[in-house]
Write a structure and sequence with these properties.
It is a single chain. By secondary structure, the chain is mostly helical. The protein has one domain: Rossmann fold. The chain contains 4 helices and 2 strands.
């Protein structure tokens, strides 16, 4: 019988790996004036959220997210547009958390 991990260790490890890779690339490419950053979305209105019950959506938005709403895909797109613009020329090796303040709790 295969071992089934149900608490997200595989997901957490993959996220940590991506962020470590991003920081390493940022350092390696800095001398070429190439910025490397990451966008880490929180609860965003996608197909995954569509599978939530209304009660789960309400709890997630009103109880867990300080801004009291589920994020929209446009919220993530705006962060990406910022990072792709000249406004972020002095930002590299950073993670932009688009999560309505979820991590400040």
């Amino acid at each position: 019988m295969p071992l089934r991990v149900t608490h997200g260790a595989d997901y957490a490890a993959s996220k940590a790996g991506i962020l470590g890779f991003m920081r390493s690339l940022a350092l390696e490419l800095a001398d070429r004036k190439i910025n490397v950053n990451a966008v880490a979305p929180g609860t965003i209105d996608t197909d995954i959220i569509a599978s939530y019950t209304p009660e789960q959506r309400e709890k997630r938005a009103m109880v867990e997210v300080p801004l009291k709403r589920i994020g929209m895909p446009e919220d993530v797109a705006n962060a990406c547009l910022f990072l792709a613009s000249g406004l972020s020329d002095y930002i590299t090796g950073e993670t932009i958390h688009v999560n309505g303040g979820l991590y400040i709790r």
